[in-house]
Amino acid sequence: MKEVLLLKCGEIVLKGLNRKTFEDRLLKNLKRRMAHVADCEISMRQSVVYVEIPDDADADAVMECASRVFGFATISRAAVCPEKTLESVIATAKDYLAANFAAAKTFKVETKRGDKKFPMTSTEISQHVGGELADLFPEVRPDMHHPDLVVNVEMREKYAFVHAGPVPGAGGMPIGSNGRAALLLSGGIDSPVAGWMMAKRGLELVGIHFFSYPYTSERAKEKVLELGRKLTAWCGRMSVMVVPFTKIQEEIRDKCHEELFTLVMRRFMMRIAEKVAVEYGCGALITGESLGQVASQTMPAMAVTGAVCELPVFRPCIGMDKEEIIRIARKIDTFETSILPYEDCCTVFTPKHPNTKPKMPKILEAESNLDVETLVDEAVKGVEIAMLSYQTFDRYDTLFTQVPLDVAEAKAKYPLVIVSFHWGAEKDYAPNSNQQKMGKMAIDAGADLVVGHHSHRINPIEEYNGKYIVYSLGNFCFSGNSKPDDMSSFLFQIRWRVTDAEITQEDFRIIPIRISSRTDYNDFTPTVLDKATAIDGLLTTLKENGKKLDNPVSEYPLDW
């Protein structure tokens, strides 16, 4: 039996002339998220989105995916009637809802007649269908007031549908419809909840995490990235900016009074977060602060820390108690990760008696001992970026749709886009047709450079529409094999000239290398090739396999 999801739009139906903008964003978000689950046909009519579930798809997974897309008020998993007739509706309800009738003692029928041309009113349809179902299931009696089962019949433009009632959707506004904001992601319980709450209001999230190695471990950083991955189930793709924070904390420890340590530290966090946020097109900051929860979250303390920012600071958890926050954390599946016992930077050098009622003159006096601007600039320059995105590369049919959308969206936000693909088959010296298609699609969508890896073999370079697709660099350092039969690799160099007006691509060079300093076994020491015979062999391999491409580069110029 053919199934479909009926997704009813939420508050965007209240929008005026700009309503289509929100609807387009909602559909785009849904299609992107569904692409990772199943190849569903998705359409929208009369504020209802139809998701047609393929016969070979996991309907439960499709339902779960849809339930996490912000913007939908309700979701109904329905059966499609073969014909838009009462007879077909009754037969479909009998088969599709048999288990529901078996578990119920009472029922009623409700009808929505979206197709006003259908010759019966909603009430007449409900009465007729209800009477027939009462005969088919005599052990289940009709009850118009408090039924165990509500049989929903929907007469739409093209089809009739039957289902057992809607379930709540994620609600809120479509992700990205209200801009982008930077989430200060600590690793605790509160900040992921705060991010989720603001994403629900239509904000696209960029994560910012402050990392204090060696005072905090790599496991602590991985914990935060895992929290980011958990949020992507609701928020879609997400970048997490990891800020090196050790030097700043050590400077504060050495030059500031202990009771002010946390406040000065948080002011640095807000300064850095704002700089990163502006650079990545964010219009606000988001924190997980809850009034009075800890010493740094008193009203005077938040006034002091927020004073360094020009961007608005959203604190969605501000009026919530811990139990309320934990309840949401469990719902969005971040709680168990948040309570893992890996300390974050906020627990480093914690004062015994923090100042809960700070005065601005005291804070400014403490900061006068620090080179604030230099410390902030150094931290921003040292940011690491973690992209939380695609999980696998085994569904080219899905990715042919998904990748161009993502690249185009990135290009609309950033002047330079480099796409890195983990693709192809191991030990292949040339890309397959899917790789060539994908690389060109990425360039067509706005990518400035495509670089691939995975095959453990060097692959040729293709020039397409003035851009380069570097299909595989081989290995730079590979510990998976002590005696690989091919140690060839190369580094790819390319220059872009940046001016106020534009970014101009200049030519590329390569540096031929071997993944080992020895030829008889792999000592895991990448080495620049200096023997002409070895270099010639590498270049010959690239040129010969380049003949299989549509637009291979003619030459491989060596290092600048």
How is this structure best described in words?
This protein is α/β, with parallel strands linked by helices. The chain has three domains: 3-168, 2-Layer Sandwich (VC0802-like); 180-385, Rossmann fold, CATH 3.40.50; 392-546, no CATH class. 35% of the residues lie in helices and 22% in strands. The protein is built from 17 helices and 22 strands. The chain has helices at residues 19-34, 59-66, 86-96, 98-102, 122-136, 190-199, 218-235, 246-255, 261-279, 299-306, 322-331, 335-338, 360-367, 372-381, 396-413, 433-444, 532-546; strands at residues 3-9, 41-45, 48-52, 72-80, 106-113, 141-142, 149-155, 160-163, 167-168, 180-184, 204-211, 238-244, 285-286, 313-314, 384-388, 418-422, 449-453, 461-464, 467-470, 488-498, 503-514, 527-528. Strands 1, 2, 3, 4, 5, 6, 7, 8 and 9 form a nine-stranded mixed β-sheet that branches. It has a six-stranded mixed β-sheet with strand order 14-13-10-11-12-15, with helices on both faces. Strands 16-17-19-18 form a four-stranded mixed β-sheet, covered by helices on one side. β10 (180-184), α6 (190-199) and β11 (204-211) form a beta-alpha-beta unit. The protein is globular. The mean pLDDT is 90.
